[in-house]
Amino acid sequence: MRVALADDSLLVREGLKRVLTDAGIEVCAEASDAAELAEAVDHHLPDVVIADIRMPPTFTDEGIRAAHTIIARHPRVAVLVLSQYVDADYALALLEDDDGARGYLLKDRVLRIADLTDALARLERGETVVDPELVDQLLRRARVASPLDGLTDRERHVLSLMAEGLTDRGIAERLWLSPKTVETHVRHVLQKLGLPEDHTRNRRVQAVLAYLQR
Amino acid sequence: MTPRARLAWFVLLVAGPAFVVFGELGFWLNGIAPRETFPLDLGVSSLAIASGLVLWRLRPENRTGLLLGVAGILWTIGGIRAYRNAWAFGVGQCFDGSQDLVLAHLLIAYPSGRLGHRSLRVLVTAGYGLFVVGVLETITMDLPRRVNAFAVWHAPALHGTLSTIGSVGAGMYATTGIAIIGRRWLRAGYSRRRVLGPVLLAALFFALAVAVDEVVQAIVGSEPGIVFFPPLVARLLIPVAFLFGLARSRLDRLVVGDLVLELDASGAGTMQAALARALHDPGLQVGYRLDDRDEFVDSEGEPLVLPVEDADHAITYVGRGDAQLAAIVHERALLEQPSLIEAVSAAVGLALDNERLHAQLRNQLQVLRASRARLVRTADSERRRLERDLHDGAQQRLLALGLALNMLRARVEDAESAQLLAEAEEELATAVSELRELARGIHPAILTDQGLAAAARTLASRSAVPVEVVVNGGRFPPAVETAGYYVIAEALANVMRYAHAGRARIEIREAAGLALIEVSDDGVGGADSRRGTGLAGLADRVGALDGRLVVESAAGTGTTVRAEIPCA
Known about the structure:
The complex is a heterodimer of chains A (about 210) and B (about 575).
Chain A: E1 2-6, H1 10-22, E2 26-31, H2 34-44, E3 48-52, H3 62-73, E4 78-83, H4 88-94, E5 102-106, H5 113-124, E6 129-130, H6 132-140, H7 153-163, H8 168-175, H9 179-193, H10 201-213
Parallel strand pairs in A: 1-2, 1-3, 3-4, 4-5, 5-6
Helix pairs in contact in A: 2-3, 7-9, 8-9
Chain B: H1 3-30, H2 38-58, H3 64-77, H4 86-95, H5 98-109, H6 118-139, H7 156-187, H8 190-220, H9 229-265, H10 271-278, E1 285-289, E2 296-297, E3 303-304, E4 313-320, E5 323-331, H11 338-411, H12 415-442, H13 445-450, H14 452-462, E6 467-472, H15 478-499, E7 504-511, E8 514-521, H16 533-543, E9 548-552, E10 560-566
Parallel strand pairs in B: 6-7
Antiparallel strand pairs in B: 1-2, 1-5, 2-3, 4-5, 7-8, 8-10, 9-10
């Protein structure tokens, strides 16, 4: 797997590069801001781009905007945006378009290298990745009587994995269930929440996140 | 009083009336003028002398009064022609009409009494030249010397020419007078017209009447026994106008008494309007001097830069003793009534000082408010900077350190060391997470990045009580958003701590230039902004932005905390 790195902190960039290289992932390009990154992507066409959300010049959501630009030009390049704090608005902004593989992780995740490589692998397969901490926050949120109350524990678990961006197959693997069972759970969850059932990839994740954020 | 002034007084007081009686009797006795005009003649001369005396007494430094008195006396001299004495006839004939020259002089010099501009001095001097023409006319008159003692040069043709020169000269003089006075009227401001109006109008009428008189005489010719009335009436109107002006300024000073009552009855901030009314100057401005500083503020305490004195505006400083309390910016014309300004200043002294203290207090309040706002802004930007430094510095370094530990662990073969390194990594991950929370507490990055609405949703999602977030409108200025954030955070914390609420609601909207940030719950109520230091601190923060914090919390009806902050 070939990865391009974008972070305005040289320290983090270097550390990440070494860790990824150690894990057998090739870092083919590095950039310190969005413009450099776009150039590097055009030039190296990596499988996945890892970009910090806060980059020069405004240090707000450059990472997300860079992701949209990159995917528009190179639909097969996956983009993982690392965020200093998790926020549903950012995740939804990132997942706005259905095409391309997009991931949104808390930056601290890089310290758990297994989580990071797992996310990269999923992105390379074209899946969507949403940080479990964000999903957890959204699910834990206090609510006045909500259809969420009508979910079984298993359905709730399935819902959170849907929100993290896992495919039915991924959920089946994670929960040691047959894909058929997962499919049923997913259908029940969508029905109970009143969400359309034909969602694929980004769109399903986006719908679930938006629902949870309400 | 100087000896010269005393002599002049004597002449006007004693000789004046004597002359009037003497001269007017002459008119009466011999019918030089028709008998019907006698009361008018007597009226003109005595009124002119009387009002001249009054004016002179009030304003000894102004020559207007003196000139008016002299004009009155000259008017009567013509009358002595009737005493059937060659010398009296000669003198009377010489001075006939000379009063108009003096009247013209004083009207052109009005109101200062001085002929400021060179061209005016030349004009008036030329005007007095007409007196010389009159004397020459008398000398060349076709009369025997037993009738006219001055008839020393028998030259009828020259006399005719001189007559024409006198008439044309008088007509031109009057026309020029109309132009000068008309221009003065047009250029006068409101207050100036009010003060100078009566005399200027009388002067205009006078000049017009004389000019028309000369034209009529030139066309019809002068007929003995036929008198053109308008000039006579105009001459009468001049002293009347002066007396009217005097009476009115006396009345204006009476109004000053009302002013004091008015100021007593009304509250602070009305001084300027009251003074504008009393001094008849709608554009009048009052500046209050700050203690120990040479700076002035208006009644609201806003700094006021006094205008530069110019042709239209003057500044009168009002004070007690050496202390300057206030500056009154007014129309320059008011300077012509110094006694009025003095009376007003004296009358409003105490109220003015009072109002000045009010203005000063307001000014201090403003300065204080500005400094409080500055302090809050500085603290906020410091917090933002600190958060950025933590993120860009410490957090990135810790992440890099964690990555290094991770690599190290992969290279260590000793199981115990690997275990220790794993623990260290675990600690580090916790430290990074805690540091993130710390940075968020110092200043939430989401507030800067995405605004108050997003930050409010994050706060809501962390609340143990269900919170509905309703947002209407876009982003507010950073200071307003920061204050709004702390209001929401504190109010939500209170909901969790005290309210026993089932649900809460955050509403953010903009209305009429105000950012309205409201947190309400359905709990037990009874919150008091004075009890909890949290709410008091919020009120300070909101107040620093000129906003206000409203807490509605009757027992049993829930609590609503609302911040209203100007955001336009």
